[in-house]
Specification:
The protein is α/β, with parallel strands linked by helices. The chain folds into 2 domains: 174 residues, Isopropylmalate Dehydrogenase, CATH 3.40.718; 152 residues, Isopropylmalate Dehydrogenase. Helices cover 38% and strands 15% of the residues. Strands 3-2-1-4-11-10-5-6-9-7-8 form an 11-stranded mixed sheet, with helices on both faces. A hairpin with a 6-residue loop joins β5 and β6. α1 packs across α11, α3 packs parallel to α5 and α7 crosses α8. The N and C termini lie close together (11 Å).
């Protein structure tokens, strides 16, 4: 199942490009969006892109027509309302058992807000629809060079930086480590997990902040006692935490002993190394929902929408991850 995202963005383009390489032996996913808009996007892109595009005529589409005209590259309340409605309908289809996993094309939070939907992002709306208190945001990517998989979970997501320290505590760290361990058990019987510190140099023994000493180190010690089947390391200085991951991305595990999973304490701390290493391969994976959800790790691409130049690598990776793990 694919929710097609903001119709003013690159959702249609990256979806049709990614599906052009879909395995022939696999049934094509169901799409949720406006068929007329999808077909007109296809016709416009055919004349602008040399990349292969799947003809929407081959696809099953749960047709929810646009209620107002939307122009490529021009975000609006109408586009926000459409992407919100398409996501909601897609979740309903998954909950009814039509599909095992949901892939979401990018939306624009400010367009949702303009349409009256005050959510920090799709993850929070998905948690509400699924009836869970919170979904966890994990970014996973397989290196095309070495085959090694990078997994990074965020302890907090879409928060202002000033709100991060007060949103973190021992219970949250323990709960997020439980989520990360469960995911990494898919790939290893004894996962190695690394936790980044909150402060520069992980607090430097309290000289650059007390959070590590006050609650982070006790939380990690408590969790490790409960989970002897895992190897837990940290808190590590955030500026060196992902060095082994960078080496493994290039050369595989022969280059060192990278972690099976990394826990970042806030959004940019985790997403900067992920996007530097794996911008075209990384997949946003929502954990803690009763179904698997993946999405590309990029945004709506309004600046290039409708021009036929959007890269579909991350959307293809999101589809592959949903097929592999769903």
């Amino acid at each position: 199942m694919i929710s097609l995202g903001d119709p003013a963005g690159i959702g249609a383009e990256v979806t049709l490009k990614a599906l052009a390489t879909w395995p022939q032996q696999q049934p094509l996913p169901l799409l949720v969006g406006c068929r007329r808009w999808l077909e007109s996007s296809y016709q416009a892109l055919r004349g602008q892109s040399n990349a292969a595009l799947l003809d929407p005529g081959q696809l099953e589409v749960l047709n929810l027509p646009l209620e107002q005209a939307v122009r490529a590259g021009e975000p609006s309340a109408a586009a926000g309302a459409a992407s919100f409605r398409w996501l909601t309908a897609a979740v309903e289809q998954v909950q009814q058992g039509r599909c095992k996993a949901l892939v979401t094309a990018p939306i624009a939070k400010h367009a949702w807000h303009a349409a009256g939907h005050r959510y920090p992002g799709q993850t929070e709306r998905l948690a509400e629809l699924a009836g869970v208190a919170e979904a966890s945001m994990l970014f996973t990517a397989r290196s095309p060079r070495s085959g090694w998989r990078l997994n990074t979970l965020l302890a907090t997501t879409h928060l202002p930086l000033a709100a991060v320290p007060t949103s973190l505590n021992r219970d949250r760290i323990v709960q997020k480590l439980d989520v990360l361990l469960a995911f990494c058990h898919r790939f290893s019987s004894r996962p190695k997990l690394v936790v980044a510190g909150l402060n520069p140099h992980a607090g430097e023994a309290g000289q650059l902040g007390s959070e590590e000493i006050d609650w982070l180190i006790p939380a990690l010690e408590q969790w490790q006692e409960r989970h002897p089947e895992a190897e837990l390391i940290g808190p590590l200085p955030p500026d060196t935490c992902w060095l082994e991951a960078g080496q493994a991305w290039q050369h595989g595990t022969a280059a060192g002993n990278p972690a099976d999973g990394y826990l970042a304490l806030y959004h940019d701390q985790g997403l900067i190394p992920v996007k530097l290493l794996a911008f075209d391969q990384a997949v946003n994976t929502s954990l803690g929902l009763p179904f698997l959800r993946t999405s590309p790790d990029h945004g709506t691409g309004f600046a290039i929408a409708g021009r036929g130049i959007a890269r579909a690598d991350s959307m293809a990776a999101a589809l592959e991850t949903a097929r592999e793990l769903g």
